[in-house]
Design brief:
Elements lengths: L2 H21 L14 H15 L1 H11 L5 E2 L5 H25 L1 H11 L16 H6 L2 H8 E2 L2 H10 L2 H5 L17 H7 L18
Parallel strand pairs: 1-2
Helix pairs in contact: 1-2, 3-7, 3-8, 4-5, 4-7, 4-8
Length: 208
């Protein structure tokens, strides 16, 4: 996807979530800083849009140069996509754990946790250097491991929009199946004020 298309989809996704956050909020009476206006949402997304699809672009670039030990193109889409998703999400999980364990990474990641009113736009509130660090660590590892086609990369980029929902102020959870897929209620614990939750629940998409 082009940066312009990605920007449009992100804006539409966040703006579409705003009325749902008002109708079925997990938390009512949030502080004024909740960035619920369209202007605040657009400014937040615009600051991050150039980096939002960097992981899939990096994979495509490295694959074009001959990288990728495992050729997912030889597999059916229904098998190749889960393999790519699990590997990429495991990398995100490891990086997130490191952000809470390594002081200099936490100094950057603490910006994400400084938002006292969790909402859809909170998903994009990250220190600008973090994606560059990912590009030479976990994203690079996935790109060197897998050779993926455009369908898999596009699908993974679209699945990534779920990150907006997990940060939304929505009373949405999956009950006993919470370990299968991340949800707003599940991820909200990670952003809670209770210290026992701060260094746990690092899932991006797959809590297991």
């Amino acid at each position: 996807m082009s940066p312009l298309v990605t920007l449009l989809l992100l804006c539409l996704a966040v703006l579409a979530l705003l009325p749902f956050e008002r109708l079925w909020p997990a938390r009512t009476g949030q502080p004024p800083e909740r960035a619920s206006t369209a202007t605040a949402v657009l400014l937040t997304l615009l600051a991050q849009i150039a980096l939002s699809s960097l992981s899939v672009f990096e994979t495509a670039l490295i694959n074009a140069g001959g990288g990728g030990l495992v050729d997912l193109r030889a597999l059916p889409f229904w098998l190749g996509l889960p393999l790519y998703l699990v590997a990429a999400d495991f990398g995100e999980y490891l990086f997130h754990r490191a952000q809470h364990a390594i002081p200099w990474l936490w100094e950057m990641h603490s910006l994400h946790h400084s938002d006292r009113a969790l909402h859809a736009a909170s998903a994009m509130r990250h220190f600008w250097l973090e994606p560059f660090i990912k590009s030479v660590t976990i994203w690079l590892a996935v790109a060197l491991l897998f050779r993926a086609d455009a369908a898999i990369l596009t699908a993974y980029a679209l699945i990534g929009f779920w990150n907006l929902i997990t940060h939304a102020n929505l009373r949405l959870g999956f009950g006993p199946a919470c370990w299968l897929w991340n949800s707003p209620q599940y991820h909200r614990l990670h952003h809670g004020v209770d210290p026992q939750h701060h260094n746990a629940n690092f899932a991006a998409l797959l809590p297991i």
